[in-house]
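re: that chain from earlier
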Amino acid sequence: MKLINDGGDNENKKKDKSSIFVVIANVIGVSSMAFVISAVVFAVLLFGVISFAFWHLKYQGGIKPPYNAIDFKQVAYIDNQFVIYGIDYDKPKPYSLVIFNSTYGESWDKSEINFTPNQAVNISYQASFNYFKGQCYLFGQTLSPLVASDCRHWHNQAIEIESATNVFNELAWGVPGSVVVKDMIYISTNSNGVYSSKDGIKWQNESLPNPDGNEYPLEFGSIAAGNNKIIVEARMHRNKKLIGVIYTKDLKTNSWSYQVYPETVHNITRGKDRFVGATNSGAITIEGNKNDIESVTLTTSEYDIKHGFGGAKSLAFGVHGSFVGVNRMLTSQDGLDWMGTYPDGSQDIWALSVACSEFQCIGIGDNYHLITTNDGISWKLQEFEHKNPPRQLGWYHRLLNRLFFTKN
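^ sequence. v structure.
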């Protein structure tokens, strides 16, 4: 029998081929759609991250290149010179501590820092410069303080903590203030209270009374001394809000007392016959032998109170006997009557920290921002000059450093 092919097999083969093409086309279509969706999601996320970073950087000085590789964090006037510490973002060691020195604030030298091996460094915390018994000190950036006989060649100093309990021979990260009183130095730490020392090596914790009803650890801040007393401010929680605690040590009786204040107090400094501090709404003063707190609410605009002196970044006394406050620039002769300064033609007159000699104040900020005044009223931008200028980074370098290498 002769078999006759009627073409059915060919038709089936054609159908099979068509089905395969359809399946492949569907798979390609689904894959393409998934790829497109993934690409869109990735692009949106990338745009969001970059936009957030740019927005964040905008308030650190803008996004126009070139970015400077160093942010200044604090300035002090000790041992007849200005000293600044900051964050160095330069590679290969981004986010490292850097210190600069200047006699008149015009030309700056970079200090040498020799850390003890395995010494932990964390410049996210507050720190304080001081000068005590022939040595410059920087507390708060390392667990044992940095010292230098000339404020220019720094190294860690081994210390001992005198305590009834076994503790490490370390002070603390975060030292917002220090003060020298006769033959003693006192430091205020963020979370461990107040320490004192006669030689900078052996330290003991001051026994401060705990405020009535307080159940939480206090956070300590600035410290100042004068007229046989030491004043240190702290913050505590009460009724779901932060309020102020002002501790006073009577150096005649060697005893501590405290007052509770309805709002937090910051940046206490000493000048003339009084202590002056900043609050969220204005300023306070404590005069002479009295412990009475006199407060004043600033009458400038709401914006200036909220973003300027209310929560002032720094206070200092000096420059022809006046108090100077920053972030927004304010000055006062008595701590009660404050005058704002609004320079014409510049939006860059601001600072995060300020320090004064008798004849000059210097304010500093991120991107090695530097401003100066000789009267506490008229401020001007100062070019940061030193022998080896900091490397300038492109905006993309700083963006990468901020995203991947920094902690602030």
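DSSP finds three helices and 33 strands in the chain.
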